[in-house]
Amino acid sequence: MKLLELDSVRLSYGGRPAVDGVGLAVEEGDRLVILGPSGCGKTTVLRLLAGLAAPDEGRVMIDGRLAAADGRLEIEPERRGLGMVFQDLALWPHLSVAGNLELGLRARRVPRAERKRRIRRMLDLVELGDLASRRPGELSGGQQQRVALARALVLEPRALLMDEPLSSLDPELNRRLRAEILTLQERLGFTLVYVTHDREEAAALATRIVLMDHGRIVREAAPDELTAGPAAPASQP
């Protein structure tokens, strides 16, 4: 069943196409990785799915419903049932770990007792239960990544969108957090759409991979193709 869909979507910034006629369907339970170099349009695809941008042309569908089309949003971001982890994490530095998780729950008017239950469960799942009162600046890079992941998942989204969240980490921590993402996906059952420029990340996380270049989807690849196939396309400056 199609959970997320882009239908012939185009979006330009300053007259330059960021995505150019992209068609993409994400099935429920997929782990879809969008692989490509910087500037190829992959982050814009996430923004379109999340409702942070509307296409100039084409349609965005969420669970069979029209979410955006022709420059207008039909379903607001908070009503799409999606979670997002940004590349810069976007944690609130003045709030505690628990406070960062609570913001989205408050916005959705989740009752206080339920907020506490969800926060406690999610922090235990990402092994941060003892750090709930800490602020982001008191945490390591890996711990901050886990907070961002927990903040997205505490909302119980049907799909999680991740924009190169591990790109700043050393290789060993990167591998460890990839394994944790897979464990959480298996346990919680969310659909994953993950953006990266890293072939190893893509192969490790994906059940499906699409390669993007210059705002277009070039082809779809199986994870095992990345270890034997040609390099991903490279955008020109």
Description:
The protein is α/β, with parallel strands linked by helices. The protein has a domain at 1-77 and 192-237: 3-Layer(aba) Sandwich (Rossmann fold). Helices cover 32% and strands 29% of the residues. The protein has 7 helices and 11 strands. It has helices at 42-50, 97-107, 112-125, 141-153, 171-188, 199-205, 225-228, and strands spanning 2-13, 16-27, 31-35, 57-62, 65-69, 72-73, 82-85, 159-163, 191-196, 208-213, 216-221. The strands form 2 sheets. The chain has a 6-stranded mixed beta sheet, with helices on both faces. It has a 5-stranded antiparallel beta sheet with strand order 2-1-4-5-6, covered by helices on one side. A hairpin with a 2-residue loop joins strand 4 and strand 5. Helix 2 runs parallel beside helix 4 and helix 3 (112-125) crosses helix 4 (141-153). The termini are far apart.
What would CATH call the class of the domain at 1-77 and 192-237?
A: Alpha Beta
**CATH fourth-tier homologous superfamily of the domain at 1-77 and 192-237:** P-loop containing nucleotide triphosphate hydrolases
Main-sheet strand order equals 7-8-9-3-10-11
For the largest beta-sheet, the strand count, sense and barrel status come to: 6 strands, mixed
Examine the secondary-structure arrangement and name the CATH architecture of the domain at 1-77 and 192-237: 3-Layer(aba) Sandwich
Instruction: Indicate the mean pLDDT.
Output: 91
Q: Count of helices?
A: 7
Question: What is the succession of H and E elements?
Answer: EEEHEEEEHHHEHEHEEH
Helix content: 25-40%
Spatial shape? globular
Number of strand elements: 11
What is the radius of gyration computed over CA atoms, rounded to a whole number of angstroms? 18 Å
Low-confidence stretches: none
